[in-house]
Design brief:
Order of helices and strands: HHEEEEEEHHEEHEEEEHHH
Largest sheet: 6 strands, antiparallel
Radius of gyration: 20 Å
Structural class: alpha+beta
Shape: globular
Number of helices: 8
Strand content: 15-25%
Number of strands: 12
Number of domains: 2
Helix content: 25-40%
Oligomer: single chain
Length: 322
């Protein structure tokens, strides 16, 4: 008996995982703090790249990675293996140490990571105060966050993989300056940003729990950005978001797709609920449309030179197999 072939929309819907929202908050908060520890190690040892591009993590088929971090005459890398539930640390001279991921406090994780690096001959000191959070607890004192539910991690990984996959396709249709699709551990969200090439007015600052100097450097140039935010205890529903800086006149009234997208005035950005994407007949197409139509609205209203900044979706300058 042959298995019936699924059409594309059925396959897409099946692979976008249902997220547990309020049920996974404890796990998300714990892994958020762990990611800040690992991210701060990368930030401390990596050469600074404009707009904090030397700071974030990257989605991999198995989880998240720092990518290669230079150290001395070599390099090392730290990965969150969210399938194997482990944190491997590897060096260019062949050393490997692996820390098991499970329910443990932030303080214990912090101590384990620093001890493993010390044993590998990697000296690093980071600011132990978490970023972009109200009332942060220093990593070495944090006995509050220590939950790790594997089923929640599986959902997290799936959502990141599929979101990054579509966002990378969106990124590829732009030939101007554009960021990688990267995961910012401060705000705990996935993002990609396109640049017009023009400078922007100085950012006013005042972003909660983010130093003004960081915000001003991040928004020194005109941008259109979209991303995926996982939610928190106060606002547990994961969303895709899109904004422009500076926000052009009329942006909030621009027609965007899909139909479930809407303007959220409190944040000054468009949002699209993750669940609306997951339940749609074509999740990939709906997320791409959200990224594309919000970008087009920002670029058209701000009069970007779109002809010199874009090429067609899926365009390849060389034929396959070349």
């Amino acid at each position: 008996m042959t298995r019936p072939k699924k059409d594309r929309s059925e396959t897409e819907t099946a692979v976008w995982p249902k997220l547990p929202h309020t049920k996974w908050t404890d796990t998300i908060e714990t892994v958020h703090m762990w990611s800040q520890i690992v991210g701060k190690i990368r930030m401390e040892l990596s050469p600074w790249v404009n707009h904090s591009w030397s700071v974030p993590l990257y989605v991999t088929p198995r989880g998240l990675t720092t990518s290669s971090i230079p150290y001395g005459r070599g390099a090392f890398q730290i990965d969150f293996d969210l399938i194997g539930h482990a944190l491997p640390i590897v060096t260019s001279d062949g050393q490997v140490k692996t820390i098991a991921l499970g329910s443990k406090t932030v303080a214990d994780f912090y101590a384990e990571v620093l001890a493993a690096l010390d044993e590998m001959g990697i000296e690093v000191s980071i600011n132990p105060i978490p970023n972009e959070l109200p009332d942060p607890i220093a990593f070495h004192k944090d006995q509050v966050h220590g939950t790790y539910e594997r089923e929640h991690i599986t959902a997290l990984h799936g959502a990141l993989v599929h979101s990054a996959r579509v966002m990378n396709e969106f990124r590829a249709a732009f030939i101007g300056k554009v960021s990688p699709v990267h995961f910012f551990w401060g705000s705990f969200d996935l993002a990609v940003t396109r640049f017009s090439g023009r400078t922007a007015p100085p950012h006013p600052g005042g972003m909660p729990n983010l130093p003004d100097v960081v915000a001003r450097e991040a928004y020194s140039h005109e941008v259109s950005s979209c991303g995926f935010w996982l939610g928190n205890r106060e606002a547990p529903d994961p969303i895709f978001y899109a904004y422009a800086y500076p926000t052009p006149d009329g942006f909030s009234d621009a027609p965007v797709r899909p139909k479930d997208a809407f303007w959220l005035g409190d944040l000054g950005e468009f949002v699209l609920p993750y669940d609306a994407v997951r339940r749609s007949g074509s999740p990939d197409e709906d997320l791409f449309a959200f990224c594309q139509t919000t970008y087009e609205a920002a670029a058209d209203l701000a009069k970007w030179d779109r002809k010199s900044l874009e090429w067609e979706r899926g365009y390849r300058p060389l034929p396959r197999g070349s």
